[in-house]
């Protein structure tokens, strides 16, 4: 079996290398398609286009040349894709969203099931023509000159996200595979014989409706480009039951004993933006996120000098800068309908020093709760691989065999792809201006 797997891996890399000669394809990071110069050195005075930075420092994005259906088909030749895309931005929604100009619009094309998160030092926006709105949940999509061979006569929709400068760890967008498992009906619990990409019969409750078995697939594919002022780095992250916070949350909801948890969550309630945690008065903009509206809520900043805390969109609070007990009482973002997080609701914000010497404040009660989990027991260190985007559309292929944990949280000796629960695209501190399409699981055609 080991020899067969090695042979399959060698055949896969050989085919991908051949594809890269034929079309704009990058199976590994750090390489640029021959003959495709980066447009980041263009003269900003000679072009017009979208700007993510302030006008005085902006290098406008004139857009990428059109990508024909023939070019897309050539890049994807020899590949097949999972029955459901992780995100292809072709679904539509009539739900309202409020843009940055406080206009209410109908969403239209969206990133189905997609959510965003940031370090709370800057917002992340989705863009469509002259419309900009917080990404939130199910962000608005826009048209692009990247052809979709499945619908060559119709406009293709992609996600255009921008924001910054992020001053902490950055941000990201993602899709929880529970939505594909149950929302799209791939793994209906009533089926007597689940499909081979569904959790096996007898899987625990926290896994059966939230994960997919993608062990028969080779990796993650995504089309992407960046604007000239955007950082080039974009990471692909894949989480499974061993490292995913959502699975741990489900285990808490199910009141499973700590001994059965794969990893643990912690919730830091100190400020991470360099400002003091202050009590804001009753009825402030972020009060709905937690705390008692009559007594005020805690946020990072000075109520006399800083803008109101929390950014409100049609999907609720995004990129809040809450702290203290207000942060402890907030809902778990992936399951806001639950109304509270059983691990942190009602806990005081308590100072704690880890054995490494790092100190901060966390949501836990020393009298009744175990101390915050040390970093080597914490969730969140997904398997990842870095992409280095250019200003032209390219197909990136990321085999699971090239993905590794970064080492800052709980480590596992293997990457189990039978219980994959989430796929994310993340970035570091700085400015971002990304264009994303067709995020999918792929494999070499059998």
How would you explain this protein's 3D organization?
With 446 residues, the chain is an alpha+beta fold. It folds into two domains: 2-250 and 380-444, Jelly Rolls (Sandwich), CATH 2.60.120; 266-372, no CATH class. It is 12% helix and 29% strand. It has helices at residues 2-22, 69-75, 178-183, 205-208, 245-253, 324-328, and strands at residues 25-26, 79-81, 91-98, 104-110, 114-118, 124-128, 131-134, 142-144, 156-166, 171-176, 219-226, 233-240, 277-280, 297-300, 311-313, 316-318, 349-353, 359-363, 383-388, 394-399, 420-427, 430-444. The strands form six sheets. Strands 1, 2, 6, 7, 8, 9, 11, 20 and 22 form a nine-stranded mixed beta sheet that branches.
Oligomer: single chain
Shape category: globular
- What is the mean pLDDT? 85
How many helices in DSSP terms? 6
Tally of individual domains: 2
Sheet/helix structural class:
alpha+beta
| Percent helix range | 10-25%
Q: Which homologous superfamily in CATH is the superfamily of the largest domain?
A: Galactose-binding lectin
Strand content: 25-35%
Described by strand count, sense and barrel closure, the largest sheet is: 9 strands, mixed
């Amino acid at each position: 079996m080991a020899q067969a797997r090695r042979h399959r891996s060698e055949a896969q890399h050989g085919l991908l290398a051949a594809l890269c000669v034929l079309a704009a394809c990058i199976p590994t990071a750090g390489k640029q398609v021959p003959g495709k110069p980066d447009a980041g050195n263009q003269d900003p005075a000679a072009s017009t286009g979208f700007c993510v930075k302030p006008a005085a420092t902006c290098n406008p994005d004139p857009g990428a040349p059109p990508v024909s259906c023939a070019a897309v088909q050539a890049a994807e030749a020899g590949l097949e894709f999972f029955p459901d895309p992780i995100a292809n931005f072709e679904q539509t929604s009539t739900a309202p969203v409020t843009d940055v100009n406080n206009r209410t619009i109908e969403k239209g094309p969206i990133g189905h099931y997609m959510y965003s998160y940031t370090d709370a030092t800057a917002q992340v926006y989705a863009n469509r023509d002259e419309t900009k709105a917080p990404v939130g949940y199910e962000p608005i999509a826009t048209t692009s000159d990247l052809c979709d061979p499945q619908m060559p006569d119709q406009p293709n929709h992609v996600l255009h996200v921008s924001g910054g400068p992020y001053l902490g760890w950055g941000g990201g967008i993602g899709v929880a595979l529970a939505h594909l498992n149950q929302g799209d009906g791939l793994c209906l619990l009533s089926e007597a014989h689940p499909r081979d990409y569904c959790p096996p019969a007898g899987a625990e409750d926290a896994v059966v409706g939230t994960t997919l078995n993608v062990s028969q697939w080779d990796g993650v594919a995504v089309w992407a480009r960046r604007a000239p002022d955007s950082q080039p780095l974009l990471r692909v992250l894949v989480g499974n039951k061993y490292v995913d916070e959502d699975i741990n949350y489900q285990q808490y909801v199910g009141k499973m004993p700590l001994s059965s948890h794969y990893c643990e969550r912690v919730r830091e309630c100190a400020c991470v933006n360099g400002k003091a945690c202050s009590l804001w008065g009753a009825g402030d903009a972020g009060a709905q996120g937690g705390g008692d509206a009559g007594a005020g809520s805690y946020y990072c900043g000075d109520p006399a000098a800083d803008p109101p805390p929390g950014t409100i969109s049609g999907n609720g609070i995004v990129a809040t800068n809450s702290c203290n007990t207000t942060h402890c009482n907030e809902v778990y973002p992936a399951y806001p309908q639950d109304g509270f997080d059983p691990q942190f609701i009602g806990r005081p914000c308590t100072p704690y020093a880890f054995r490494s010497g790092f100190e901060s404040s966390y949501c836990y009660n020393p009298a009744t709760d175990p101390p915050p989990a040390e970093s080597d027991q914490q969730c969140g260190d997904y398997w990842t691989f870095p992409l280095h985007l250019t200003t032209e559309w390219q197909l990136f292929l990321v085999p699971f065999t090239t993905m590794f944990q970064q080492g800052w949280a709980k480590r596992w000796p293997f990457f189990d792809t039978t219980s994959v629960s989430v796929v994310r695209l993340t970035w570091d501190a700085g400015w971002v201006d990304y264009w994303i399409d067709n995020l999918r699981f792929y494999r070499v055609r059998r």
